[in-house]
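Dear V.,

Thank you for sending over the compound details. I've combined the ligand you provided, zinc ion, with the protein sequence from our construct and run the structure prediction for the complex. I'm sharing the raw inputs here so there's no ambiguity about protonation or stereochemistry in the SMILES, which I know was a concern on your side last time.
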Amino acid sequence: MNGTAHAAIGAATGFVVANTIHTSPSTTLFLIGLGGVSGLVPDLDIDGKLREKITLSHHVIQLVAQLIGILMVIYSFFEGTGREKWLGIGIGLVMMVVSAKIKQKHMLTLTGIGVLAGGFSLQEMWLILLGIYMIIASLVPHRSYTHSILGVIFFWVIASKLEASLGMDGVFYTCILGYISHLIADLKILPCNKRGIKLFLPLSSIEL
Ligand SMILES: [Zn+2]
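Below is the predicted structure of the protein with zinc ion bound, written out as structure tokens.
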């Protein structure tokens, strides 16, 4: 399944969550966007060890990195104070520029390090964990750990910290359901998938 389909399914998931808990129109829009991003997150591993799909993967990763850079600038501007605020904005801007410039495979590792640094400077646990997630995703093979139960658990923690930080209902469910929707869409039983996912890594490398 390609990036656009994953983003669309994730966005639809966010819409369903918003409608289920009856959010305001602005929160609904935010959850739709958040669902779209969450639906793309497992494929951050495409930067790792995949060559065949490099064009698509590069664009997806570039898009995600730039979105995160933009969100970081906005978030730091409204939520940060003093030195952290400008540091966060600076790191977000650097991420946007760097992700637009660097075209090689280590872009995601660098972006992950940037997110990690941003998380420490803003003292946001979800951002720190997201940075660690991105660094790991950039190093493991495609459709491995990010497409496993372990990946879901890691993202589960990120999502719960993000919801606590934003204080917004529906954030956790949108993130986690968007993520899980990606794994379901990547299952081998679907005719559009040549490969499945290794859900039980590292215990078993059986492909589902
Ligand atoms: Zn995938």
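A first observation: The CA atoms of residues 145 and 202 lie 8 Å apart.

Warm regards,
I. M.
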